[in-house]
Every structure is written in structure tokens, then in C-alpha cells.
Amino acid sequence: MSTPQLGMMSCRKGAYITTIGDHVADFFYIIRSGSVRVTREIDIKGESKSIILKPGDFFGVVSTMSHHPHIDTAQAMEDSKIITVKRDQFQFLIQNNTAVAMNIINGFSQRVRVLNKELVLKSGTGKAEVGPESLFNSAEVYIKTTRYNEAYFLYKKYILENPKAPNVLKAKQRLAKLAPYAKAQIALEGDTSFVRKYPKDCMIFGEGQKGAELYIIQKGQVKISKIVNNKEIILAILKAGDMFGEMALLEDKPRSASAISYENCELMVISRSNFKKMVTEQPQIVTKLTILLAERIWGTTKLIENSNMSDYVGRLYDWLAVELEKMNISPNSKETVKFNFGINELVSIVGIPKDKIDESITELYKNHKISEKDGKIVSSDVSEIRSQCNYYKKMERIKKKRI
To answer: What φ, ψ does residue 285 adopt, rounded to 5°?
Structure first.
């Protein structure tokens, strides 16, 4: 099959190419001549909100590959010529140029880490880096909440990876006591299969752990979480077809979050050596990974925006609206939708303080079009979610103007 013809557009100085929140992105762009200013809406510590791009630079890739509305604004700084690339042309663009593909992937993975760091800083911990003690500290949180499988796994990895660490003796003592209560987790030890099965509530890898494997979910769901202020914060709930664990594989750094089976699941496991071979021989894997990272960047950007909202009920509506966007459900639809998480997970995702949880949930459930069934949130009219989300965002803008 021949490579499809890429498009070309001419932009006069001052012309807007993309705008924040604009319609679902259909193209991403490569600058052929001229220059473009790209501006983000969110503040990231130590970064400028706008950057100037030159010929050869890409922009709009995140929104296009994740198939969501734009998260930045691009404006021509001078008369420019721009190459336009459709989402379905990406694989053809990179199939004969692995270096370009890996530059995009590595740039995306670095961006994910920057955004994750910002998200943790906004949580108020003041610490965004993970390290050997993250394993032990996370285990201490899980054991206090009787999450014995997770605690056992983390103590075990802490001992194996950090045999001279300060809390090894304490970890060994905890491990011995936990063994009778963590049989499901223990049964998974030593499995190096290409396809692995995990029962519900077992840890796949832990925050701070060394790792060099990427996972593709074949069946079931996986929860991605971090421990923040001695509390588990859910970052995402992934479903069949999703990938995770790519950050440690690409950057050879400790895991930045934990992965836990949210229900019984089956995972395909790709090692670093296999990955390098797949990049060369299977460009569709590169495309899938690019889409995954784009989704991560888009979703984390939205989570940071959500954390900037001062009204906690507004945060709940906002994240439900984000989830509808992820599911490609029209915000004006009147249909009934069942989300893949419950109210406790939603509260955890948006980071509501413990003393504000009950009143926030009570206020949300005053809307009789939102309920919980079988442990999952249900909306009988999704247009109501968009309406409430817009109301709270409007109130937020008014409040900020008064400050």
C-alpha cells in the first residue's frame, strides 16, 4: 500500500491553527517554514506556558492521536507553511523512519513524567520523585488498610532491590506475618510467561520499583495509582486493549506509580529486548504506544486542570465530563451511561480532602440523574453532566476574577 499524500496549508502571520478546547482534533502538524507559538492553559512549575516552534517541529500530536479536543493554542508568528497529517496517516509516516517515531515517543514519555510530577506537587506533598523508600512507604499504607496482597508484594520488592536499605529488617518482619494472608499474590511469584493472569486486587508492579516491561491488557481492568499523603490516589482505570508500564521501559527509571488488578485480568508482557524488535518490525505497535502516551498526556493535563478547581462538587462533575470525552460520548446525548468506576474511586481520582468527602457526595447525589448501581456510577442523562460541569466552571472563572 502506498503512503497517503500529506496535506499542506499556508498560514498568515497571526492566524490561529488550533485553539484550546476546540473540536476533536483531526490533524497534527509539522512546520515546513516559518514559526508557530504554542500556548498551554495550565501552569507547570519551571516551564513557560508558551514555546516557539521552528521548521521540523511537530504540534497537535497529543490531541490528534488521543482523538480529543485540543489542549493548547497554536498561532503563526510569521507567514508559515504547515504540513498536515491525519491520525490514520501516522503509521505510514513513521514506518520507514523509526528514529522519528522514537523521538516522538521519548518526547511524550518525558512529558508524561513532567505532568505526573506537577500533579503530585499540586497534591501538597512537596515530593514528586520516587525511589527505593517509596516501596516501603507504600507498603506501610497498604498494610494499615488491610490490603495484604499489595503490602506483601511491596515489602518483598523492597528487600530484594534494596538489601542494605534502612527498613529492611522491619520489612522482613512484616513479610513473615503477611504470608498467610497474601496467598494470591505469592502464587504469582516467578511467573515469566509472555501472557500472565492476575486475580483481582493483586499488584503487578509498585511505585518506586525497578522495571523493564510493558503490559497490554488482554482481559479485565487494571488500576494505576500513587500513594499521596499516606493515601492511595487513583490515576486511571485501564481496560482491555490499553497499555501501561511503558515509562520504565522507555526511560529505565523506577516505576512512577503502582499497577493493581482492578478485577481478574490477563496481560501480555513485552520486555525491553522484545520492544526494540517490535518497533522495527511492527510499526502498529509504535502507533499504539504513541496513542497511549497521547492519552496519558491529555488525561493528566485534564486532571491537573481539575485539581485547580476550588469547588469539590465541580471537580466531580468535571471528571465525569472528562470520562465521557474519553468514551467518545456526545456531551449533548440524553442516553444512560454506566461508568467503569464507583463514587469512592471518583473521589480518589479528583483528590477530595477526607473532611469534605461526605458533603461533596451528598451534593452530587442531590442530582437524581446520577446514582450508583453495582458499585459503578450511572448517569441517566449525560447532557446533565455537561450542563453542571459548565456551570461550575463558569462559577470558577467568576471567582478567580474577583481575587
So the answer is: -70, -40
**For residue 361, which of 369, 373, 371 has the smallest C-alpha distance?**
371
Report the C-alpha gap between 296 and 207 in whole angstroms: 17
Q: What length does the chain have?
A: 403
CB contact set of 132 (below 8 Å; sequence gap of 6+): 158, 161, 162, 165, 208, 254
Give the number of other CB atoms < 10 A from CB of residue 145.
Answer: 12
The CA distances from residue 46 to 20, 39, 110, 117, 395, in Å, are 21, 15, 15, 11, 29
Q: How far apart are the first and last CA of the chain?
A: 58
In 182-262, where does DSSP find H-type helix?
Answer: 183-186, 246-251
CB of 280 within 8 A of CB of 98?
A: yes
Give the per-residue pLDDT at 126: 45
Burial zone of 384 (CB within 10 Å; 0-12 exposed, 13-18 middle, 19+ buried): middle
pLDDT, averaged per 10 consecutive residues of the chain (403 residues), comes to: 74 94 84 94 80 91 89 95 89 74 80 81 59 89 94 95 92 94 93 92 93 91 88 86 82 87 94 76 79 87 90 95 87 85 90 92 94 93 91 89 72
| pLDDT the model gives residue 125 | 47
| Amino acid found at 178 | L
User: pTM of the prediction?
Assistant: 0.74
Domains of the chain: 7-94 (2.60.120.10), 116-304 (2.60.120.10), 309-402 (1.10.10.10)
Backbone angles phi, psi at 28, to 5 degrees: -115, 170
Estimate to the nearest angstrom the gap between the alpha carbon of 37 and the chain centroid.
26
CB-based contacts of 202, cutoff 8 Å, min separation 6: 149, 150, 153, 184, 185, 188, 260, 261
Residue-wise DSSP of 108-177? HHHHHHHHHHHHHHHTT-S-----HHHHHHHHHHHHHTT-HHHHHHHHHHHHHH-TTSTTHHHHHHHHHH
Residue with cell 440523574: 369
Radius of gyration of the chain (CA): 22
Q: What is the Cβ-side half-sphere exposure of residue 69, based on CA atoms within 13 angstroms?
A: 14
